Structures are given as structure tokens and as C-alpha cells.
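sorry to bug you again but im stuck and you know this stuff better than me. what follows is a protein written twice so to speak, once as letters and once as C-alpha cells for the fold. mainly i need to know what kind of three dimensional shape the backbone takes. anything you notice is useful, everything is just below:
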Amino acid sequence: MAWPLISTRERHPKLGPAERRRLRALLAQGAVAQGFRGEVWTCARVARLIAREFGVHYHKAHVSRVLKALKWTPQVPRQRATQRDEEEIRRWRTEQWPRLKRGP
């Protein structure tokens, strides 16, 4: 006789409907309003926000499921800063770096 694959306990979400509505409102305020630097919502940041506001701990990899349920998507920060000045970097590499490499 095969055993049925039925769980004896139901799994309940860690965040209830009211908490998810509040999370959506917090996300809508923006990352800077929640104390983060820059307006990018990464899974790690959302996990920290959930832990701080609700006392519930999610692994950052599982936060994407919560965001998907809220119709949000995690954002990936740009690898380069938007303020990056390529000409200034080129100048520093050709003028300053050789002097520093030589030593005092």
C-alpha cells in the first residue's frame, strides 16, 4: 500500500494579507524613504525591510516569491555609477597612476 503524499499540517504564509498590503505601501514609498542608499529594491533590501518592519525573516532568494505575489519585481543595480566620468578616469589612469606606481 502506498502512502498518500499529503502534508499533515497546512503551510501558512509568513506575511498575512494586511502585512502584504503594508509592505506594498512601504515599497511604494521608495528605498531611500526606508533608509537605503539609492532607489533600487533588491531582494536583499526587501528581506531586511521585512525583518525590520514585521520581524519575519526571509532568505533573500525567497523574497522574489513575495515580490511576485505583490506584482513587484526585484531590481538589479547597475554595475557602474551613473555619475561616472569616463574622461576623468582616463586622465587619472594616464597621469596620476604612473606617478603613484613609481612611489614617493
Remarks:
- The CA atoms of residues 90 and 96 lie 10 Å apart.
- The mean pLDDT is 84.
- The two ends are 82 Å apart (CA to CA).
- The longest helix spans residues 86-102.
